[in-house]
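lol forgot to send this yesterday, sorry. struct tokens for the thing we talked abt
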């Protein structure tokens, strides 16, 4: 992969991550992930 493409993907990824943090989607995703993990091991 050319350096330019890699740098562009990095910038886009960081931008999307910041957008998700701004919209507080990270909390929702973590809650769902924890719930699914607990259901898999039979606690939830």
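and heres what i got for the seq, position by position
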């Amino acid at each position: 992969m050319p350096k330019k493409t890699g740098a562009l993907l990095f910038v886009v990824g960081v931008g999307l991550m910041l957008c998700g943090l701004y919209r507080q989607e990270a909390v929702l995703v973590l809650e769902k992930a924890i719930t699914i993990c607990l259901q898999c091991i039979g606690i939830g």
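The chain has one domain: 3-40. anyway ping me if u want another try
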